[in-house]
Write a structure and sequence with these properties.
6 helices; elongated; 44% strand; single chain; 8-stranded antiparallel barrel
């Protein structure tokens, strides 16, 4: 059982990375400097909205039903989390984007969970001074290791965000300017450690992508990509309840 789950996790990650169109790799071959901004060779937006998202949904759905009879009911746990971090754009004008997220995470298998969160973003640079609110961002987490004390996971999610001021705006290097409404894509990895049965702390790295899918044409979609780190806390009420029962 463990071998089958591990194989499916590796297969899903492999498909996510290599499911994007071949032209991403062609662009890197013709422009070696692009590897600085895109070291894995795929487009973040394509990864989530293109074939990558479809493959990921099919694989996780199939894996869930394959494991359905053997899934551990105790791992069906609902948890709440709060996290905060800072992202740095690796493209001019090198936007600084502090973010704070509040969300829920629900484990359906020992190695798989689904969740949703709300986020607040504050992009800041010489040209951009805006605040964005992501009202609903859905995601999936894949657990490479999950014990009572420690968890290591990879997440991938997508949502919609509204900015109080247009983001991104035109700069002294481009006359492209964005829109108030954008899509937000995230993916990253984190380590989570329990300080007591119900409360854990987490530390992770993340990639954020903002764009509007050319809803007003390519000229109105300069997009923004950034990397960063985040810290957070996770609360599991079920574990807290079980701990009280054990004490009694």
């Amino acid at each position: 059982m463990k071998k089958r789950s591990s194989f499916l996790i590796c297969l899903m990650v492999f498909m996510c990375i290599f499911a994007s169109p071949e032209n991403s790799f062609a662009q890197l071959s013709s422009n070696p400097r692009a590897r600085i901004n895109n070291p894995l060779g795929f487009s973040p937006l394509v990864l989530h909205f293109g074939r990558g998202a479809g493959y990921l949904a099919i694989l996780t759905g199939a894996a869930y039903f394959i494991n359905k009879k053997n899934k551990e009911i105790e791992d069906k746990r609902l948890s709440l989390y709060l996290e905060s971090g800072t992202m740095w754009s690796y493209e001019y004008p090198n936007t600084l984007i502090p973010e704070t997220n509040l969300g829920v995470n629900y484990k359906v298998l020992k190695w798989l969970s689904y969740g949703a969160d709300m986020g607040i973003y504050h992009p800041r640079d010489e040209f951009n001074q805006s605040t964005g609110l992501s009202m609903l961002r859905i995601f999936q987490r894949f657990y490479f290791r999950d014990t009572d004390k420690f968890r290591l996971w990879f997440e991938s999610g997508v949502g919609v965000v509204y900015f109080t001021k247009i983001f991104p705006v035109a700069t002294d290097r481009t006359d492209k300017f964005g829109t108030n409404w954008n899509g937000v894509v995230k993916y990253g990895a984190a380590a989570e450690y329990n300080i007591n049965p119900s409360l854990s702390v987490l530390l992770g790295v993340r990639h954020l992508h903002f764009s509007n899918a050319d809803i007003r044409g390519r000229f109105r979609n300069p997009s923004s990509d950034s990397h960063g780190i985040f810290l957070g806390v996770n609360y599991n009420p079920r574990r807290s309840y079980k701990a009280l029962q054990n004490e009694e």
